[in-house]
Amino acid sequence: MTPRHAALTLALLCLLAAALPPGHAQAGPPRFQATFFQPLRGHEQWPPERFERLFDELAALGVREVVVQWCAFGRTRFLADPSGRDAEALPLLERLFPLAEARGMRLRLGLVHDPEWWAKTSRSPDVVEVYLKRLELDSLALAKDLLARFGGSPAFAGWYLPQELDDVRWNGPRRALLSAHLKGLAAGLKSLDPARDAGVSGFVNGFLDPLALREWLVELMRESGLAHFYLQDGVGVRKLTLAELPPYLEAASQAAARGGWTLHPVVEVFEQTHGEPLDQEPFQARPADMSRVAAQLAAAGRFAPEGITAFSLPEYAMPADGPLAAALNAAYRRYLASGR
């Protein structure tokens, strides 16, 4: 056993000794109740029947909620521009809401994602502070527009902040900048839309041990006032192994119990094949093997009072998207049917 594994094992034993009872168990094997969906410019080329098939397939797999990861990506807004002046606008949300409503599904809407987020948040703290304030204002302006258009839909579940958080960049002096940014967004959204809540996601690099991660999450979520945290398991991008994952899930679960917010374990249903830290190529991934996904679901299931979220079924588990995606889809259906 390596020193890191020994430390993780000790941390897990400490956490289990203090653990609160797990969330309510669901009959049958752990399964996905939600999935992320990443809007892309390529969706402009999809015919209506392809979107119909996507939502039919998600409903058949038991998905009840779709987290739309962003509604604006850089300069592209994924909703119609009635004025016709925005050449980058793509009316995707106008397609998604009727599909979700017809199937009794819900959409949680992500706000503005800046593709240069990682580079811009690596700059000096004073520059980062100004950048985060501008991002906050842009995000709230988009939220106001989304609320005016879709606020009356029964499928509108709430809000999601696309800025992915990690335990390296935001651990230390920069955490105050992040907390102020999240607090401003949460307060602004609550002022615009008192009836709906908001969440954010993050991942673990293993920089913090599980006990330190627990305290980091307790403070971050208390200061921000957000209601949901989506914890990516990092298995698909090899940030954590299946052996290392449970102590971090336990730690996050305890933080949620202390803070009164909801933890959503996120299972990565892909396997990274290119991109950092593997190589210098652009990020690429392929659908994971179901045996690995089943192990991830088993790890997440004990800490998922409101269900497990996939990242992501539309990208990696639709039958029409190649043999590996079809194989994962078929294997997941067998997993659900067999109960194991």
TrEMBL record:
<dbReference type="InterPro" id="IPR017853">
    <property type="entry name" value="GH"/>
</dbReference>
<dbReference type="Pfam" id="PF14488">
    <property type="entry name" value="DUF4434"/>
</dbReference>
<protein>
    <recommendedName>
        <fullName>DUF4434 domain-containing protein</fullName>
    </recommendedName>
</protein>
<feature type="signal peptide">
    <location>
        <begin position="1"/>
        <end position="27"/>
    </location>
</feature>
<keyword id="KW-0732">Signal</keyword>
<dbReference type="InterPro" id="IPR027849">
    <property type="entry name" value="DUF4434"/>
</dbReference>
<feature type="domain" description="DUF4434">
    <location>
        <begin position="35"/>
        <end position="319"/>
    </location>
</feature>
